[in-house]
Amino acid sequence: MHDIADLEGRGLVGVGIATTEFINAAQAQSRSLGYHPAMVFIPHPVQDRTDAELHALADAAFARIMQSITAQT
């Protein structure tokens, strides 16, 4: 959240990307900071996935990420 806020404070578009495990934590931090960045959540976990699985996750999330970026410009 702090990194995205910093980017946006510099005039750059930011989108947070995290796994679904962190939805509640992201919401809590967002409320605490009073800052509500665009977020895209991907399936959890990622650490044990193969390169092909990670590429598939990225491909599946790409449209949502781009939509979040372009909605802010």
Could you explain how this protein is built, in words?
The protein has 73 residues and is α+β, with helices and mostly antiparallel strands. It has one domain. The protein has 3 helices and 2 strands; from the N terminus they run H-E-H-E-H. It has a two-stranded parallel ribbon. Helix 2 links the parallel strand 1 and strand 2. It is globular, with a radius of gyration of 13 Å. The two termini are 19 Å apart.
What's the short story on this structure?
This protein is an alpha+beta fold and 73 residues long. The chain is built from three helices and two strands; from the N terminus they run αβαβα.
> What's the pLDDT, averaged over the residues?
94
Task: Tell me the helix content.
Answer: 40-55%
- Number of structural units classed as domains: 1
Strand order of the largest sheet: 1-2
Cα distance spanning the termini:
19 Å
